[in-house]
Amino acid sequence: MPCAVFGASGYSGVELAWLLHNHPFFSLKHAYSSSAREEAEPLAGLYPQIAGQLDIILQPWHPDLLSQLAQEVRVVFLALPHEASAELAPILIKAGLVVFDLSGAFRLRDPQQHLQAYAFEQPNIGVDAIPYGLAEWTVLQGHEPLVAVPGCYPTAAALALKPLMHLVQGTPLINAVSGVSGAGRKAAAHTSFCEVSLAAYGVATHRHQPEICQSIGHPVIFVPHLGNFKRGILATIYAPLEAGTTQQDVELALQRAYREQPLVRLCHKPPAINDVVGTAFCDIHAVVHNGHVILCVAIDNLLKGAAAQAVQLANMYFDMPASTGLTGRGGVI
Ligand SMILES: NC(=O)C1=CN([C@@H]2O[C@H](COP(=O)(O)OP(=O)(O)OC[C@H]3O[C@@H](n4cnc5c(N)ncnc54)[C@H](OP(=O)(O)O)[C@@H]3O)[C@@H](O)[C@H]2O)C=CC1
Ligand SMILES: CC(=O)N[C@@H](CCC(=O)OP(=O)(O)O)C(=O)O
């Protein structure tokens, strides 16, 4: 299945390019950067890690390329800033392409909430329902023109909480720490090596708060943190439980949700970021304590939180096992 990656010069884009290049069914035909780059160049020029293995040329995107693209590929993955996705996705859909969008442009159902979170209006692409693709909780029909891939923090938080919401009574509190690749490749002082130690940010204002609420169907308190490591997210979640809920109730609910899901691992001890970095896995540990469940969840933000989840959804879209091409350990950056 020929496909293309937009935003391939970025962190989640290059991970997508690598996963698709090594995939048994998808075949990477085109990799695009923004049009701000002046010339085509090998993607390996930006990421020497892939030299000699993935020899694709990174082409600056230009609308004149659209008709050739539409003739040559069926599926496109967008790893672009939210507004760029919002602008490009409708054009690609109109050209007959199936779009997996990693940005936040199409995730929120409520246009007002979207406007408040992203500060631009959500485009109306004339589709009734755009699937929000939390992969383990989504059924795709295989004819949707666009799938919205969840954000990295919402993936970690919702995978842990969704199986337990019938046992939760009260507001879950979510503390999550992300590595710096979560902020993307573009240079910025607040994400530069000497500036980052460990601190909360976006307290009570982060755009993933409404996304998590939408995903689990319940309000939450969410505090993201930036840590001085490259990749990975570790979330610690405290959720009050209905009186009498036991450890066994929680474990059964998690097992029921995930026993058929190869990319979610239920763990006997709290996971470390190193357990999942370079993988498509989500590791979850749960303990009932003082009327609460304490959940520790780890994912690689660039893989399960972005590129690998997009490929997982594309696998499902084309009726393949969800984990096709995703069970190895790797990661480009
Ligand atoms: N990083 C992460 O952990 C996660 C990211 N995401 C989402 O994935 C998307 C990409 O994020 P990330 O990889 O971090 O970003 P990066 O900043 O690393 O990369 C952004 C990419 O988009 C390209 N680009 C920028 N502006 C435009 C434009 N106007 N038109 C076309 N291409 C453009 C850039 O090209 P150029 O190099 O030429 O500037 C680059 O290839 C974002 O929507 C982000 O929210 C989702 C989950 C996790
Ligand atoms: C560490 C860091 O900066 N993380 C990003 C979130 C990661 C991400 O890309 O999520 P979206 O797809 O929703 O943008 C942030 O907090 O904005």
From TrEMBL:
Its main location: cytoplasm. It catalyses: N-acetyl-L-glutamate 5-semialdehyde + phosphate + NADP(+) = N-acetyl-L-glutamyl 5-phosphate + NADPH + H(+). Catalyzes the NADPH-dependent reduction of N-acetyl-5-glutamyl phosphate to yield N-acetyl-L-glutamate 5-semialdehyde. Belongs to the NAGSA dehydrogenase family. Type 1 subfamily. CDD domains: AGPR_1_C, AGPR_1_N. Keywords: Amino-acid biosynthesis, Arginine biosynthesis, Cytoplasm, NADP, Oxidoreductase. One of its GO terms (molecular function) is NAD binding. It is an enzyme of class 1 (oxidoreductase). This is N-acetyl-gamma-glutamyl-phosphate reductase. Its EC number is 1.2.1.38. GO terms for cellular component: cytoplasm. The keyword Metal-binding does not apply. NCBIfam families: argC. It is found in: Cytoplasm. The lineage of its organism: Bacteria, Pseudomonadati, Pseudomonadota, Gammaproteobacteria, Alteromonadales. Residues 2-143 form the Semialdehyde dehydrogenase NAD-binding domain. GO terms for biological process: L-arginine biosynthetic process. PROSITE patterns: ARGC (PS01224). Gene3D superfamilies: Dihydrodipicolinate Reductase, domain 2, NAD(P)-binding Rossmann-like Domain.
